[in-house]
Amino acid sequence: MKIMKVLSLLIFTAFLSTALIAQQKTTFNFSFGPKKVPGYIKVDPSVKYSEEMGYGFDFGTTPVIITPGN
């Protein structure tokens, strides 16, 4: 019976560690303005989307910077 408990614990641990390793970052903080903001990823209009980075502009879009008050 003790062997079954240990085996079950080992299988559960292997499953849990595999699930944690497979997770990708899904939360980003972006800065689209002209200045770099600490803690944020600055994204210029020229940055094209790539799966490697996980962000960027796609589908032939041309982003336009709009400054409040203008």
N to C succession of SSEs:
HEE
Averaged pLDDT? 76
The N- and C-terminal alpha carbons lie at a distance of 74 Å
Report the sheet-strand fraction: 5-15%
**Lateral arrangement of strands in the main beta sheet:** 1-2
Low-confidence stretches: none
Describe the global form: elongated
Notable features of this structure?
mainly alpha, 2 strands, two-stranded parallel sheet, 70 residues, 6% strand
Please characterize this protein's 3D structure.
Helix content is 30%, strand content 6%. The chain is built from one helix and two strands, in the order αββ. It has a two-stranded parallel ribbon with strand order 1-2. The longest helix has 21 residues, at 2-22. The protein is elongated, with a radius of gyration of 22 Å. The termini are far apart.
Strand and helix map with partners:
Layout: H1 2-22, E1 30-31, E2 41-42
Parallel strand pairs: 1-2
In a few lines, what is going on in this structure?
This protein is mainly α. The chain is 30% helix and 6% strand.
